[in-house]
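Complex record, two chains
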Amino acid sequence: MLMRRRALLAALALAGVHAAVADPMVDYTLFCMGCHGAQARGVPGKVPPLAGALSRFMRTPQGRDYVLRVPGAANSALSDAQLTAVLNWLAERDAGAGAAPVAPFTVAEVTAARRTPLASVQETRRAVISALAAGGGAAPALDY
Amino acid sequence: MRSLDRMFEQSSRTLAQRTSRRSLLGALGQLLTGAALLPLLPLARGGRAEAATAQPDVNNPQSCDYWRYCAIDGFLCACCGGSTTSCPPGTVPSPITWIGTCHNPADDRHYMVSYNDCCGKTSCGHCDCNRNEREKPTYRPSRNNDLNWCLANGDDSNYHCSVSVILGVVPPGS
């Protein structure tokens, strides 16, 4: 009986978490869209695109680590669960637009990576993109 | 008639025995001073008239109280030759924006609102409105609105005014 009650509580807790991150589109609109734009295409020369780029970064461990530590993601007001949901939602949109599907982020992965700031964002970006290009397959544009 | 005389005589004698002649002067003095000071008391006479007309103007796009301006910081384009949602002639909207949520009292729902800066001319200077609800201090840069969003416009980075564009309804519970 105790086990059953604990399972029920766990299910309720999960349901609560799920409800809190149920709408990544709303979180994207409120916390990301102001800079990255309604279509997540960014602003040339100012704001990097997410559409067509995020899922490409997610192909390698270095790329996944980079995406979770860039200031816009790491310092956002989103909780780890919300950030996970928004990033996975964007990656799904990429896949829907024809990009190769990638493994979604887990909340544990996001929690572990985002607390360590990037010392040099641009340098890391270039290194990650160069490695992605060298490994074959599609890589995001070096500059935006 | 005699009883009336007696009654007044009695009351006059009682008054004369119990009070001094100077007390009349004292009482008169107090009355005059009090009457003179009465208008100086801090009564909110003007406040009452003001309160009668100072209801928040939640449906007037040229008022800072307009419901969808809840997170705005800038000059209202509705007062600058544009409208709530369109930039005045000669200006272009910024591609990056500040986004907030506002409660619409008319339907009791929360709306996501994009506050695009209109850029390309010097500051409008009319209807300055700084409500910025749910904004955080500068040390939370992702939730701080103290910047010129026109900086993303390249050559047209002069700030003129701000518009408020509805993006959608916040689903209940999110």
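Note: The mean pLDDT of chain B is 86.
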